[in-house]
Write a structure and sequence with these properties.
Elements (H helix, E strand, L loop, with lengths): L4 E5 L6 H12 L2 E4 H16 L15 H10 L2 E6 L2 E6 L2 E2 L7 H11 L2 H17 L7 E5 L2 H5 L5 E6 L2 H12 L5 H20 L12 E4 L5 H15 L3
Parallel strand pairs: 1-6, 1-7, 2-6, 7-8
Antiparallel strand pairs: 3-4, 4-5
Helix pairs in contact: 1-9, 2-3, 2-4, 3-5, 7-8
The structure holds 2'-deoxycytidine-5'-monophosphate (DC).
2'-deoxycytidine-5'-monophosphate binds next to helix 2, helix 4 and helix 8.
């Protein structure tokens, strides 16, 4: 049986999640945002292991791999299918909004670099996709390593890119209000730094799978990029 998974990877603010959500809606598939799991674990660590543990760049003893994974299992941190969307929960509470805070964003790369955490997240993702295999037509999964590590057999892998400036512009526009040039520059630098951290880490670095379709979206609208992925999906996963 063909694994009905579309893997969408790419750097921060490349429009992965918006694209994945819209593609899933157009195809009638479910959407799974793997970054949400890393963020939910980070939120759980911040709330239960102390904010100060990692000051100075690296996590303190309280943030050991064992304690973080133990916490994720115990609370638990998990994905729950609500309608056509997998939503992150911590101890039974929906945390979709809380995980987008600056407090979580600042620490999530550090947590996502821990091999045991990555293993835990990957098991959750595969379980979620397989458990619901009969109930949903397919799953669109977005992240950094979906096509390379989590679902290497996915019949369609897409790697989205866009310049740091364009990604910064989109991110600030999303927040609303006027965008001033110095803020734009700061945001572009912060995104470039996160790209660097995510693509040079030892485990599952951010990169396109050899058989991924690379889509540079710098000059594409969201509608255009969604249309291209949907066309690829209809071509490769007919029916
Ligand atoms: O896409 P995002 O900003 O919500 O992702 C949050 C963090 O999680 C980001 O620093 C990279 C990491 N991540 C990852 O390492 N692998 C994934 N599959 C998804 C996210």
């Amino acid at each position: 049986m063909t694994l009905r998974v579309i893997a969408i990877d790419g750097p921060a603010a490349s429009g992965k999640s918006s694209t994945a959500r819209a593609v899933a809606r157009r195809l009638g598939w479910a959407h799974l945002d793997s970054g949400a799991l890393y963020r939910a674990i980070t939120l759980a660590a911040l709330d239960n292991l102390g904010e100060k543990a990692g000051e100075g760049g690296t996590a303190g003893e309280g943030w050991s791999a064992q304690r973080i994974v133990g916490l994720a299992d115990g609370l638990p941190v998990r994905l729950v299918l609500v309608g056509d969307v997998f939503r992150p929960e911590v101890a039974g509470v929906d945390v979709e909004e809380a995980i987008r805070s600056e407090r979580v964003t600042r620490r999530v790369s550090e947590v996502a670099a821990i091999p045991e955490v990555r293993h835990w997240v990957n098991v959750q993702q595969r379980d979620a996709a397989l458990r619901h295999h009969a109930g949903v037509a397919g799953v669109v999964v977005d992240g950094r390593d979906i096509g390379t590590v989590v679902f290497p057999d996915a019949p369609l892998k897409v790697f989205l890119t866009a310049s740091p400036e364009e990604r910064a512009r989109r991110r600030l526009a999303q927040r609303g209000g006027r965008v001033d040039p110095s803020e734009l520059q700061r945001e572009a630098a912060a995104l470039a730094a996160r790209d660097q951290a995510d693509s040079t880490r030892a485990v599952a670095p951010l990169r396109a799978a050899a058989d991924a379709v690379v889509l540079d979206t710098t000059r594409l609208s969201l509608d255009d990029q969604v249309a291209r992925v949907v066309a690829l999906a209809r071509d490769r996963l007919p029916g």
